[in-house]
Amino acid sequence: MEKKRKYYNKRLIVFGIFATMIFVLLGVRLYYIQIYKGQKFSEMALMQRSKEISLYPKRGIIFDKNLEPLTNVDTTTKLIIPKSIINKNKDIYDLVSKHTTLSNSEFYKLLHSNEYLLQIPVDEEFYIEDKPSSIFFAEVVDRYKKKNTLSHVIGYINKAENTGETGLERVYDEYLKINDKKSLIIEYDKSRTIVLNGTEYVNELSDVNNPSGVKLSIDSKIQNIVEKTLDENNIKGSVIIAEVDTGKILSMASRPNFNQDNIQEYLNNNEMALYNKAIQVGYPPGSIFKVVVLLAALESETDFINRDFYCDGFEEINNVKISCTSKHGEINLEDAFANSCNSAFIQIGKEIGGKKIIDLAKRLGFGNKINIGLVEEIEGNLPKGNSLLGPAIGNISIGQGEIEATPLQITNLLMIIANNGVQKHLTLIEGVTNKEGKILKEYNKEPDVPVISSTISNIAYDYLISVVKNGTGRYMDVASIGGAGGKTGSAEAIFHKEHTIHGWFSGFYPVKNPKYVITVLVENGGSGSKSAAPIFEKISKEINKIYPVY
Prior knowledge:
This protein is of the alpha+beta class. The protein has helices at about 1-35, 40-50, 85-90, 90-100, 105-110, 150-155, 165-170, 175, 220-230, 290-300, 335-340, 340-350, 355-365, 390-395, 405-420, 455-470, 530-545; strands spanning about 50-55, 60-65, 75-80, 115-120, 135-140, 155-160, 165, 180-190, 195-205, 215, 235-245, 250-255, 310, 315, 320-325, 330, 420-425, 430-435, 440, 450, 485-495, 500-510, 515-520. The strands form eight sheets. It has a five-stranded antiparallel β-sheet with strand order 12-11-23-22-21, sandwiched between helices.
């Protein structure tokens, strides 16, 4: 009997332990569901009966050099309204259609979409009397500025997949995708027509060491000056500004501009609005290439500075006649450079040969990517093989024919001369940052490299100043900025299947201890002295107002 009692007691103890374990496990599970995962499951339940309106881009900030945000700045007021209301109420329909910032086609497309809850951007004057409780307003932070500042450098995204398609958005896509979340959760009933409640849901990353942004060398103040100048003067082309001492790119602009939120309308644009013309399009450099010819001549024989040439208004090579800008008569090297005499430089080209010119051009960065961190950059083009022989030397000597260069390559050329023959590698990106702009990973900048001797660099430097003092750039008024040096260019090209002439000016200022190199390309601008040089003058004077050079 005693034995039997002990047996039952043992079973009761085992059962009790087992039951206790069950209750403990159930308690743990209940804690896990209600406490530990309670908020998440509540959010999931809420999302099943609601619509999420994102109030903030799911991408990190791109900063300028002074940590001024270039993205995630501007806001848009959006009307959140059930489609059934706007379709059934003509007064509301008329009011919304009048004040929406969407185009007629965009508005029509939205009304005929499968969305039951519409997000309609409206202007500041929009107002509804006796607003139905099922209508909400939301202030949504835009990914891009309304002026689409620095659009070609920043690039754009595939909105559906939140992936970068071009520019920095593409290059730094893995860092710019973020999990920070700020949304408006709109609840609805079974019919999906009546809005029951609106709540703001916030879940921000707390780890400041998480890489989620990019810092650039761009100066927003200078960038705004450049873009405003291009737009006010209706310029198509590009401008680049680099800091002489550091090689940092302070501004890069391309025109026409484009709306980063509406890429479709530009896909068949024959003005190449989606192209970053500073790095993505090659142009004949025209007379700016005479800088390369000058340097090649001086490397071959410095005595060229003591030589005289004769210009009869044209130069003939193998029965091919190439016109000059004027009949200059007897002219020395400095004046030939300052006044862009084709005849003198073709004579130089014939004497030293195309190979020496092109070999030096390669050392100076032509025919290769400068590599500033944007995948769209192209190499340009330099002639080779038989294209260096015979009459081709005429085109090579004046930057025509097969030679194609980007404004970035031209900027690199002037930077080398402004730095006494040393190449300071141009940079656009300072590093990957956290969400506050603190750099977590610096951009790997290549070391400085001597490219040409200081002797011939100094001669070219003085000649560039002569261009502005006495030559094709003499019409610029640059005394207030400490003077300037540079080279004009007028390059013949086939553009949009039509013969055209692009205008160039690339130069530095002030003449003593230059601070900036500015390159201006004006598509279909004709003479560089009349189209591009005045833009250089306007931009440099505006910059000098905020950053005086002396």
